[in-house]
Design goal:
By secondary structure, the chain is α/β, with parallel strands linked by helices. The chain has a single domain, classed as TIM Barrel (Alpha-Beta Barrel). About 50% of the residues lie in helices and about 15% in strands. It contains 11 helices and 8 strands. It has an 8-stranded parallel beta barrel with strand order 1-2-3-4-5-6-7-8, surrounded by 7 helices. Helix 2 packs parallel to helix 3, helix 6 packs parallel to helix 8 and helix 10 packs across helix 11. The radius of gyration is 17 Å and the shape is globular.
C-alpha cells in the first residue's frame, strides 16, 4: 500500500498569523501519526513564512521518538543543507523552487542542474539520508535522476490534478505511470505530490501501481478544517487503499 506523509506547512502558516503558538505543529503531527499516517513532511522556505527552522528541529525529535519517517523538502541552498545536516531526516526531497515562489511549480532540469546536484546528493546519502528529486511527469527526464545518484523521484502531480475530470485526465495519468515505470526500470523508487486530494488520489494510485509514498498538505489540511484531522487522515488512507 502507498504510504501517506502529511505535509504540515499549512498548519504552520495558520500558526504564524498570530504569535500565540497555536495550532501546534507537533500536536498536528501526533494526531496525523495516531490516525495512521506513515510520516511527516515539511518544506521550510528561507523566509520561514510557514514552517520555521525551529519547527524542523521539534518535528525531528517527535518523529525520531515515534519511529516514523521525516521528510524535509526544499531547494538545496547552503542554509537549507545546514538544517538538513543538523537533523538528518529519513528523506530529503530536493525541489528547484526560488525563494519568492508561492509554491513549487516545476521539476528539476537535470541537464542543467545535474552537475550541481550530484555532490550534494552523494553527501546526503553518505549521511544516511534517502534522496528524492522533484521531477516533472515526463518519462524522458527520469533516467537522469538515477544518473546523479538519487534514490527516488517525486512526480510533480499538479498537471495531473489540473487535468483530472477533463478529457486530458487519462493522458496525464498515463504520463505519471510512464514516469514511474521508467523510474523502476532505472532502480529508482517513486513518490508523488502536489495538489493531490480525495477525488484524484484513488485514480492515480490505481494507475501508478508502484507508487511508494505521497506527501499531501494543502487539500488534506483544508479537509481537516471540515472533518477534523484524525478523520481526514483516515479518509486519505482509505483513498490510498487498493480497490477503493
Amino acid at each position: 500500500m502507498t504510504r501517506l506523509s502529511v505535509n504540515l506547512n499549512k498548519v504552520a502558516l495558520l500558526r504564524n498569523q498570530r504569535d500565540v503558538g497555536v495550532p501546534n505543529l507537533v500536536h498536528a503531527a501526533e494526531a496525523s501519526i495516531d490516525a495512521g499516517a506513515s510520516g511527516i513532511t515539511v518544506h521550510p522556505r528561507p523566509d520561514e513564512r510557514h514552517t520555521r527552522f525551529s519547527d524542523v528541529h521539534d518535528l525531528s525529535a517527535f518523529t525520531a521518538e515515534r519511529g516514523v519517517e521525516f521528510n524535509i523538502e526544499g531547494n538545496p541552498t547552503e542554509e537549507f543543507l545546514k538544517l538538513v545536516h543538523q537533523v538528518v531526516p529519513a528523506q530529503c526531497t530536493l525541489v528547484p523552487d526560488a525563494p519568492d515562489q508561492r509554491t513549487s511549480d516545476h521539476g528539476w532540469d537535470l541537464s542543467l542542474d545535474g552537475p550541481r546536484l550530484r555532490p550534494i546528493i552523494a553527501d546526503l546519502r553518505d549521511r544516511g539520508i534517502r534522496v528524492s528529486l522533484f521531477m516533472d511527469p515526463d518519462p524522458t527526464t527520469v533516467g537522469a535522476a538515477a544518473g546523479v545518484g538519487a534514490d527516488r523521484i517525486e512526480i510533480y502531480t499538479e498537471p495531473y490534478a489540473e487535468a483530472f475530470g477533463t478529457i486530458n485526465q487519462d493522458a496525464m495519468a498515463e504520463a505519471c505511470a510512464a514516469c514511474a515505470d521508467e523510474a523502476e526500470r532505472t532502480g529508482l523508487g517513486v513518490n508523488a505530490g502536489h495538489d493531490l486530494n480525495l477525488e484524484n488520489l484513488p485514480t492515480l494510485c490505481h494507475r501508478v501501481s508502484n507508487l511508494l509514498e505521497v506527501s499531501i498538505g494543502h487539500a488534506l489540511i483544508a479537509d481537516a478544517l471540515e472533518f477534523g484531522l484524525h478523520a481526514t487522515v483516515k479518509a486519505y488512507l482509505e483513498a490510498l487503499t487498493p480497490g477503493h
